[in-house]
TrEMBL record:
Protein name (Swiss-Prot/TrEMBL): histidine kinase
Species in which this protein is naturally found: Candidatus Nealsonbacteria bacterium CG10_big_fil_rev_8_21_14_0_10_36_24
PANTHER family in the record: HISTIDINE KINASE 1, TWO-COMPONENT HISTIDINE KINASE
Record-annotated Histidine kinase domain positions: 100-318
CDD domains (UniProt xref): HATPase, HisKA
Keyword Transcription regulation: no
SMART domains (alphabetical): HATPase_c (SM00387), HisKA (SM00388)
Length: 318
């Protein structure tokens, strides 16, 4: 987890990478502007000192005045830069939102449109045996749209701070077993072995079962989806002091190191995931982190591209 945090911090210091992420030129990029303003502050401080020494005999007074000026200028530049950064981030997120949502909705809607045009065509006769297959395709595409809309509604509630939390005693082992059975057909069809390992009497926590179920569903779904069979997905539960540790390890495509700092950001999807054309909105991990944070836990991951990924989260027992 500390390594991941260090990588995130280093990624923030890379001005060129940050500017590319916002899709801005250097002179429009908040981080670059902050550096420029820092240089201006340094030269202003030096000039103020030289000017002060010329007119004020007491050197300590001059230094004090220069420090005050530098601090005030730094605070002003920081506030301005942060404002620009928030605007740039909002613009980037808006563009990504439009691109992702339009793409995610367009594909299933197009499939549904073609299917119904085929079924209602007077020129083409669909074999009776194929009708059921086409209707299943329609149901699957509708489910994809419902999933995306549900994710957007959850994100909206999270950002407005309106996610209801109802805590009670939960046996994570039982909750996870039920989810594994639900995903068993999906994993077997993909040639992926799905297993759960746990220590006795370690899975009882005081938390919100519906929210934890949503987190585990997202993590299992991702692990299977990004593992090209044959492969393995291993889920483990263990106790660490006054917390329960959940981990899920896959042998999937992994996350490129240069992109690991952004993985919990809203709408973010790694390049290799896009190349694989794996379905997803880029909202699942953002939702997971928000929920775990709200429940008093922590979530992190370790990943190597081409080898696999392991996600972890902890929850307080009480």
């Amino acid at each position: 987890m500390n390594i991941t945090m260090l990588k995130e911090s280093l990624a923030q210091l890379n001005i060129v990478t940050q500017c590319r992420r916002y899709g801005l030129s250097l002179w429009q990029c908040p981080q670059f502007l902050f550096v420029v303003m820092g240089i201006i502050i340094i030269f202003t401080s030096i000039f103020s000192y030289l000017l002060g020494v010329h007119y004020i005999a007491n050197v300590e007074t001059v230094i004090f005045i220069v420090l005050i000026i530098a601090i005030v200028l730094f605070i002003i530049s920081y506030i301005i830069t942060r404002s620009f950064e928030r605007l740039a981030e909002a613009s980037r997120m808006k563009s990504e939102f439009i691109n992702i949502v339009s793409h995610q909705l367009r594909s299933p809607l197009t499939n549904i449109k073609w299917t119904f045009e085929l079924l209602t065509s007077k020129d083409l006769k669909v074999p009776t045996g194929k009708v059921e297959e086409y209707m299943e395709n329609v149901k699957e595409n509708i489910a994809r749209m419902v999933e995306l809309i549900d994710d957007l509604l959850i994100v909206s509630k999270i950002e407005q701070g309106k996610v209801p939390i109802s805590k009670k005693e939960v046996f994570l082992e039982n909750l996870i077993k039920d989810l594994i059975e639900r995903y068993r057909i999906f994993s077997e069809a993909s040639g992926i072995e799905l297993n759960l390992y746990f220590q006795e009497q370690t899975s009882q926590v005081f938390t919100d079962p519906s929210l934890i179920k949503l987190v585990v569903e997202n993590l299992i779904d991702n692990a299977i989806r990004y593992t090209k069979g044959p492969g393995k997905v291993e889920i483990k539960l263990a106790r660490e002091d006054k917390r329960v540790l959940f981990s899920i390890k896959d042998t999937g495509v992994g996350i490129p190191q240069k992109e690991q700092g952004y993985i919990f950001q809203k709408f973010f999807r790694a390049e290799n995931a896009l190349k694989e054309r794996t379905r997803g909105s880029g909202l699942g991990l953002y939702v997971c982190k928000s929920i775990i944070d709200n429940l008093g836990g922590r979530i992190w991951f370790k990943s190597e591209e081409g080898v696999g990924t392991t996600f972890y989260f902890t929850l307080p027992i009480k």
